[in-house]
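Catalogue entry: protein

Sequence with per-residue C-alpha cells
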Amino acid sequence: MESIKGYFDILQIVSHIKIIAFDLMEVILWRDEPKDYMYQDFNRYFDLDDAGFYPWVKEKYELSRTQAEERILEYMREYYRVVDKTVFDLVKQYPFALATNHLSVVIDFIDEIGIKKHFSWITNSSEILVRKPDSKFFTILLDKVQENPKDILYIDDYVGNIEAAKNMGFQVLHFNEDHKQTNLKESILTKLSDL
C-alpha cells in the first residue's frame, strides 16, 4: 500500500495536473443494451436535454416528468454499471469534476449508487443548457473549477468532445476501446506519467 501512495506522490510532483474531469457515459458508467422496447426508445433520446426529452416522453408514452424520472431510474438501476471502481482511489490525490451530456436525473442516480460524493464539481448539459462539444460547455466547466485548462486532464470516449477540450487547452485522454481493455485507473496513471 505504501508503494502505491508513493507512486501517486511522484506522479503529482511530475505532473502539473490539478483536476481530473470525466465524461460520465462510457467512461465512469457503462450502459448495457436494454431488452425492453420503451427503455431502448428512451436510450435513443437520452442525448436530449431535459427540455427536449420530457415533452417527447409525455407525448409518446403519456408519462409525467415524475413518472418518466421513476422509469429512467429503474432503467439506470438495471442497465448502468460503474466501469472501474478503483478509479476513485485517485480522488485522494486529484479532485474530480464530472462533465456530462445527460438528463438531470442521472445526478440522482450517481448519488444513489454512491459515486456523486467523489466529484467536487458537476457540469451537466441539462442544467446549463449547452452540450459538449460546444466550447461554451467547457468554458462553464472552467468557471466552476477555477483552474487553467492546461492543468486539467479531461477524459471522454467521444472524439468530438476530446478535440473540443484539446482546442481549449485541456490535457486529454480519449478513453476508447483500446483503453477499455485495461481499466480506467491504469489508463489515467499511464497518461499522467506521459505528461
